[in-house]
Predict the 3D structure of the following.
Amino acid sequence: MVTGDNLETAVAIAKEAGIISSGGPGAKNKSNSSRYRCMTGPDFRREVGGLREEVGADGRKKEVIVNPIQFREIVKELRVLARSTPHDKYVLTVGLKNEGNVVAVTGDGTNDAAALRHANIGFAMGKAGTEVAKEAASIILLDDNFGSLVTSIKWGRNVYDSIRKFLQFQLTANLVAIFMALLGGVFLGDSPLNSIQMLWVNLIMDTFAAMALATEPPKEDILRGKPYPKNDRIITPSMWRNILGQSAFQVTVLSVLLFGSGWLFGIQFRRPDEPWTADNGFHYTMIFNTFIFMQVFNEINCRKVHEGEFNVFADFFNNSLFLGILGITVAVQILLVQHGGHAVRCTPLTLSQHLLCVGIGALSLVFGYLVKLIPLRYFSSLRLNEEPLQLTPEEQY
């Protein structure tokens, strides 16, 4: 909290707001840096030395802290900066950004414009804020309610997590579908998934998955994590582990079903030039049905994208749309298999055969848990060819 109030008032407000839990000016602690928890503006300026300009590696001038070592020690403990000037707020913002932090600043006065403009995100008050502050800010709080800050940050992070969930699911389904089509085409002369079935798979991967995974509300602890840096990978090592592990599992199971039909089901391959019938279509129907149920259960896996999230059923019932889409997917799949006939190239299956497909698909949950036991260091070198974010000089410095 950066305020122009005196230190005693600032400390009392900070305690009430939960910024500090105990102590105040003059609090004693064995830690040498504890004296920096509550500071005044004059002390802060004297310790850090203010700002100076220097020329960066790209030839541009930028502002830096005069005493960066002392600044790092201060910001480790600093919670309240009282009797401060707008320039102190600006110095703190510049120093934090130079240290690689993501900085959000709130303000309502004309003098706050410099800090609002330099921060990664500036929040201005819509009612009490001046026009200069609103112009400098990135976001304007129309109701002047700090609770809106919490809501915006929670949903902003949730949208980013939802994109990652969707990518994790879609990449897995695409990798498996493409590999199986290629495998069947090369060795059998025919893809085990025909065009109608692939359209249904595409509907699941795109529309249904987006609706299911992007509508989950924010978790209660979503604000406990650090902000995502601008150079953060869109696909993290944890996601690569889940994608590649789940893809390998699904490809292995479907390959066994594709080439082991003789000893599994007692049937022979259908030749590409042989017309489809209810009898010879049983083989590919089992593959199609198993593939879809694998995606259904893997959609549950994809609800978790972060390291250490082993329980994929945590908060499972907090999104009725997700549950509804899973139910619709299963219902439509059963209808396609049982009544699609020649149009979908599906042979009706018995209840035990459907349960077998469901059981094989449910193994995706078990394997998804086991994959998370693999150390992340094996996937840390994997990354997409992502273009670096181009920032303006004002955003950089």
About this structure: Confidence is low (pLDDT under 50) at residues 24-33, 393-397.
